[in-house]
Specification:
The complex is a heterodimer. By secondary structure, chain A is of the alpha/beta class. Chain A contains twelve helices and nine strands. In chain A, α2 packs parallel to α12 and α10 runs parallel beside α12. In chain B, β1 and β2 form a beta hairpin. The relative contact order of chain B is 0.16. Classes of the chains: A alpha/beta, B alpha/beta. Chains A and B meet through α3, α5 and β6 of A and β2, α2, α9, β11 and β12 of B.
Chain lengths: 254, 396
């Protein structure tokens, strides 16, 4: 299912968008994704673990390392995707060396073969994205670009122009992980981005619970939640992830 | 050196995307892109400002002790059948070449209005140098160091704390230099407003590989002048150890446009150039030790300062165009070289430049009668504790 068409549909119908992140290869990850889909997620971001995840905080680092130690590879994650049997679009999030090593065209084709329709590469900024984006566009994979609070005004339109699927509005200065409160920058950046694009603008990084998700959704079109999902997967398993997705869904729909 | 001369050099400026040939670039989280751009602008302004350059030169002279000397090693040279010279970066303040770069970056950070430095460190030499510069300029300093290295370089950990820096042990991944870089970048992503990332080698996103090389050019420029005065011609070989590769880049820059052979010696367990493939990590495209899926492999070296699976992009470029060679030596050869230089010359080398000595000693039969300049990038005091364990049966 196309990531962009599905999420644009949500936005147009006034439905706030919830995109959980789950680390591929961590024990129970497939059931966690099914639980997300069954409890109101609009898409899922599947992490392909990388040895040096510089945008990730301790929780996702821990899950990535455990998955790698268990023998997870990009291929082993992608081979499982067709068997997930969920009716929402799936994107992958990984780091650029995984793509670079495989080669952009081959990696894009692998995503398509697995039924993945979006890709997020947090260490591939606009200036370096040309070769990958060309391959992804040709294959029909939506490349989601990140916009950060540090971007000057003249940079944001260029990022948004290169964006497919949705715009990833980075919620704070920092790496992924749960925080006690939603940073003021979270909604401020979304407010700057919304007039620039018809794509859904989703706030991610530092959106840590249902209440914060609801706050972010009063401005943005939706949220991405990673560390709070993965922590529940680590501590309690896939069922708890599903219960939590339902809780966030209810909060952003209220 | 004039701009025109730099452009003609084999080690000129990188292109607009920060690449040396096909290596380099700026692969960082979007949050850091504006900070890298700001740093690039600020560095160019400062580097072209004669007043600032004079300030840098005076701190290097009056505080760090430059110029460093050039020593001919008569006894070891005779034993090996060649003429051996050392560029004495080990005699700099804080004990290594690292101070050149750190003074430059700290002065630049101050000029940019930053109040805090973060740094990664392997052996602790860059961490000590960063802590020193922060103390000198009244800045806050936090140093990330792999937990394995915190253990094997306890003396440097204490030195950093004594200098007022905060040292945080990194427990993720391989718990060595690579993971310390990750953690320093994570810190910078969160603190980029008031913090400068004082990166310790010619690696990372543009402009770091270029900027750090410019700060270390002084090694090569001094060495060439000193060598010509002493010997009357350029050396046949210029040899330096390579982890990220900053001391090697520094000395190579003085000789890249001469006929001298340039030799960068990597540890056998961290031989990015000879055993790696092009990859992207820590903000740069360069040779990288990685598995068949692009996961970065852990390096293993007796020397914490070279325990790094990548290498600076300009080294990848120099290797790919055939201008420099990158052989490697084993830990056992390094342990021998560490003792050899100590006994024949009264100079206890750091384990890092002991790699360069080890290569010269191993290859001596092919180098008979030649002139060999080695960059003695640091002194061995920091390694004495570790080597006491290694050599206890022999020197007990």
């Amino acid at each position: 299912m196309g990531l962009e068409s599905h999420l644009r549909g949500c936005k147009e119908s006034g439905r706030k968008i919830l995109v959980p992140y789950i680390t591929g290869g961590y024990p129970g990850w497939q059931d966690a994704i099914r639980a997300c889909a069954a409890n109101g997620a609009d898409a899922v971001e599947i992490g392909i673990p990388f040895s040096d995840p510089v945008m990730d905080g301790p929780v996702i680092q821990r899950a990535s390392q455990a998955a790698l130690e268990a023998g997870t590879t990009p291929q082993s994650v992608l081979e499982e995707v067709p068997h997930l049997d969920v009716d929402i679009p799936l994107a992958v999030m990984t780091y650029f060396n995984v793509v670079h090593h495989d080669g952009p065209v081959r990696f894009a084709n692998r995503l398509v073969a697995a039924g993945v329709t979006g890709c997020i590469l947090p260490d591939l900024p606009l200036e370096e994205s040309g070769e990958w984006c060309e391959a992804a566009d040709a294959a029909g994979v939506a490349t989601v670009m990140l916009a950060a609070p540090t971007a000057p005004d003249d940079r944001l339109p260029r990022i948004v122009d290169r964006c497919r699927g949705f715009v990833y509005s980075v919620g704070l200065l920092g790496v992924t992980g749960e925080r006690d409160s939603l940073a003021a920058t979270a909604t401020a950046l979304a407010e700057r981005l919304l007039p620039l694009t018809e794509l859904p603008v989703l706030v991610g990084v530092g959106v840590s619970n249902a209440e914060q998700a609801a706050t972010a959704c009063r401005v943005a079109d939706g949220v991405i939640q990673g560390a709070s999902m993965v922590r529940r997967l680590i501590e309690s398993g896939p069922d708890e992830v599903g219960r939590y997705v339902a809780e966030v869904r209810a909060a952003i729909d209220a | 050196m004039t701009i025109a001369a730099e452009t003609r050099s084999l080690m000129g400026e990188p292109d607009d995307s920060g690449r040396f040939g096909e290596f380099g670039g700026r692969f960082v989280p979007e949050t850091l892109v504006p900070a890298c751009q700001e740093l690039e602008r600020a560095f160019h302004e400062a580097w072209n400002d004669p007043v600032w350059r004079e300030e840098l030169a005076s701190v290097l002279r009056d505080y760090a002790g430059r110029p460093s000397g050039l020593t001919e090693c008569h006894r070891l040279g005779e034993q090996l059948g060649l003429r051996l010279f050392l560029k004495r970066e080990d005699l700099n303040h804080t004990g290594s070449h690292k101070i050149n770069n750190v003074i430059g970056q700290a002065l630049l950070a101050k000029r940019m209005g930053k109040t805090r430095l973060v740094a990664e460190t392997g052996a602790g030499q860059h961490g000590v140098a960063s802590a020193t510069a922060a103390a000198l300029l009244g800045m806050e300093c936090k140093v990330y160091m792999g937990a394995v290295d915190v253990e094997r370089q306890a003396l440097n950990v204490f030195r950093m704390r004594l200098l007022g820096a905060e040292v945080e042990a990194v427990h993720s991944g391989s718990r060595t230099l690579k993971d310390a870089v990750n953690e320093a970048m994570r810190d910078w992503v969160a603190t980029v407003g008031d913090t400068h990332y004082c990166l310790g080698s010619v690696m990372g996103p543009h402009p770091y590989p270029f900027m750090v090389r410019q700060f270390h050019r002084v090694i090569g420029e001094e060495a060439r002048t000193q060598f010509l005065a002493l010997v009357g011609e350029d050396p046949d070989l210029v040899v330096a150890c390579v982890g990220g590769g900053s001391n090697a880049i520094g000395i190579f820059s003085g000789f890249v446009d001469t006929d001298s052979r340039l030799i960068g010696v990597e540890p056998a367990g961290g031989a990015a150039v000879s055993r790696g493939a092009p990859g992207v990590v820590h903000g740069m495209r360069s040779f990288l030790m990685q598995d068949e899926y692009g996961q970065v492999e852990e390096a293993h070296s007796i020397s914490a300062g070279l325990d790094y699976p990548g290498v600076g992009p300009e080294h990848s470029h120099l290797a790919s165009i055939g201008r420099a060679e990158y052989p490697n030596v084993t830990d056992a050869e390094v342990i021998e070289a560490f003792q050899l230089l100590s006994r024949t010359e009264g100079i206890i080398p750091a384990l890092e430049p002991a790699h360069a000595i080890a290569w010269v000693a191993r290859e001596a039969a092919q180098l008979q009668g030649q002139t060999v300049l080695v960059n003695m990038s640091g002194r061995g005091d920091k390694d004495v504790g570790q080597m006491m364990d290694v050599l206890k049966d022999r020197l007990g």
